[in-house]
Specification:
Length: about 270
């Protein structure tokens, strides 16, 4: 287990403890009026979160490409699949009841992966000794739109600290790009390059667990953990010993997000 995965797992455990632990009794007055939603008590809010997305994989593509390289050159290949990625999101929620809300969310995760190494193009003589260095990249801008139902364990009219749980459906729109540059391994002179990109549209599901802590009736700190499930296809051309072929790979965007942000109530 790498360091980034350990850190993300520790954050997820801390969030779960914070959300599920019973609130400490306090003699302080509630920040919001002790009555149901009426008058100045806010029941709508916008929130903006910045987080870390982990768990996505492009193993199908990288495993295939690595298999095309024979030993001993295969030992020189270094492949780095998706790691911890930046996630940005903006939400709008409406509380239809003091403990129930509906929410829509727009999100963007920025994913990157790469592979470098050396390959033998198996050219006929006199170029049969030529070795090519390769530099490959697969980058994704993962856009998403959610519809979520939320249940709050505490009523905002009497508690500053509100924990919640929820789930719903998502539409994911990955913009994926693959690029490959080949160069003479001995001289470094460019040999060839290839680039392709495409959009995808895939359904998915998600579940969330988080909390809001009100500094004021209209301003709250928001921390949330999210698990999502979805995947898409990516198609590209690739030169094999049998000639150029059309290939299709599964890209898995299933993973978890830990985010922190601010909510503005109105």
């Amino acid at each position: 287990m790498n360091t980034r995965t350990c850190v993300a797992s520790a954050l997820a455990v801390c969030l779960a403890i914070a959300v599920l632990s019973p609130p400490t009794e306090s003699s302080a007055e509630p920040i919001l009026k002790p009555k149901k939603y009426a008058g100045p008590i806010p029941k709508k809010y916008f929130s903006f979160n910045i987080g870390v997305f982990g768990g996505a994989e492009n193993e199908d593509m990288w495993s295939f490409l690595d298999r095309q390289i024979d030993q001993p050159l295969k030992d020189l290949t270094e492949t780095n699949d998706f790691g911890a990625a930046l996630d940005l999101s903006a939400c709008f929620a409406v509380k239809v009841h003091p403990q129930f809300a509906v929410r829509t969310r727009a999100g963007l995760s920025i994913l990157g992966s790469e592979s470098q190494g050396v390959t033998d193009p198996n050219l006929p003589a006199p170029a049969d000794t030529l070795l090519l260095g390769f530099d490959r990249g697969f980058d994704v801008l993962l856009f998403s739109v959610d519809a979520t139902g939320l249940f709050f364990f505490q009523d905002a009219s009497v508690k500053e600290f509100q924990t919640y749980i929820g789930g719903g459906f998502s539409l994911y729109m990955p913009y994926a790009q693959y690029d490959e540059a080949l160069s003479d391994f001995d001289t470094g002179e460019p040999y060839s390059s290839y680039e392709t990109s495409e959009w995808g549209f895939e359904p998915g599901v998600h579940a969330v667990l988080g909390f809001l802590y009100h500094f004021k009736p209209t301003i709250a700190l928001n921390m949330e953990g999210r698990v999502q499930m979805t995947q898409s296809k990516f198609e590209m051309e690739y030169d094999t010993t049998a000639g150029r072929q059309e290939l299709s790979f599964d890209v898995d965007y299933t993973g978890f997000i830990i985010g922190l942000g601010v909510a503005k109530f109105f």
